[in-house]
Specification:
Helix content is about 85%, strand content about 0%. The chain is mainly alpha-helical and about 210 residues long.
Length: about 210
Amino acid sequence: MSENCGCTGDETRAAHDPTYRRALWTVVLLNVGFGLFELAGGFLSGSQALKADSLDFLGDGSITFVGLLALGWAAITRARVALTQGLFLAALGVGVIGMALWRALTAVPPDADVMGGIGIAALVVNTSAALALARFRKGGDAQARAIWLFSRNDALANIAVIVAAGLVYWLDSAWPDLIVAGAVAILFLRSAWEIIRDARGELAEVRVTGNRS
């Protein structure tokens, strides 16, 4: 089971590899710094998708920081942290859907130029973060996989935001922005399930191993 879900890996490298630690610090700084910038841009442009994405940036940055601290912890503790990450992502996805539904009642087209420009910048930031972590996603434990999934999904969401900005400009409608916000939330929920599944599998394996030892 653990081989299929990608939950297990070289725990010694995860705990002591300075390259991995630097990659995590890079992701923390990119996510928190740009998250604040994008949040301001979301209010400036009136884009629900940008606001949702900015909250995800800030959430990813804080959770990755916890992941950085967790590198020196026991395997079972790291799996529990990854499980918490998955639950957080699920809650974020539900929250984004709720905000999109609320905004649908008073839909006003956002500023497509600002929305598209920030979307492109966000894509660059998230692609950089995903590339920094890509080399660790297959050999790492659930913690490494969870952090990489955050960055990968963010990059995909940014592409959707850019497309939505073009549609908002073309149609002069808020619906592309709201639809993308909902689609991003569904992507979050899917990844949340993957993270929770992997972390639960790793927890089960650690407990079985502990009982046998």
